[in-house]
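# step 3/5: fold
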Amino acid sequence: MNKPFTSKRTSKWISDLVTYILLIAGAAIMTLPFLWMVSTSFKLPANQYSKVIIPNPATLNNFRELFSVQINFPQLFYNSFLISFLVTVGQLLTCSMAAFVFAAVRFRFRNLLFILLLITLMIPTQVTLIPNFILFKYLHLIGTKLPLILPAFWGGAFGTFLLRQYFLTIPRDFLDAARVDGASLVQIYWRIYLPLAKPALAALAIFSFYGAWNDLLHPLVYLPSVPNTTLTVGLAFFQQQMVQGGKFTVLMAGALISILPLVLVFFFAQKQFIEGIALSGLKR
């Protein structure tokens, strides 16, 4: 009598087992390159091509040599962190404002303007690169960090869409009650919507910081000189030197340090990140 139930339970157990095996295999495939990079960064140059994951002997000379090269690694790291931080602040501020207007404020042609904003997502970044370069050249900003920072304070379609979807999940009764109490739209935005949208803000912050930190094209165009450029451009030039010298261990040490901020940001905000992504599409 319990045979159908037992059969269904067995099939579910087999399905879960296959799913977990596939997930573990996928995780292993994605983790192995990272482990190889970490391992190589602690190896001696003579052992850089060995297949051993745990280096024996392990050394820190690669990191010492990294900070003694001519590219001024600490300065490049600081430049990347400063630009990424300001870009993140700019995106959180402007995108949250625009998202609040599209989600909470009712005005004519609101949906049409939002659709036009989403259409800009289909425009490749390379298409706007030359017009922006001409604009910043006219303003005499080429060679400074401002061309990399200012566009973040102009808003963004992706960030506005992400936060707008999350703002729509907030009950409108909060806004109506605040309006009855005499609160302005700025007060409602700052004291009600922003505190309730911490998961979505964390998700956008990770996306913005990740994109600015890994950006190679724009720093290469606006900041081509190595002392004043970002870490990605510096590592690109540094890669040519290390490949010619055959020192992949030092290059892996630089790559390891370059991704540590991204790992730390995601590690401390992963709960809010996952929650913000999961809840941003609940309501249209």
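# step 4/5: annotate
Residues 63-279 form a domain with the MetI-like fold fold (CATH 1.10.3720.10).
# step 5/5: archive (pending)
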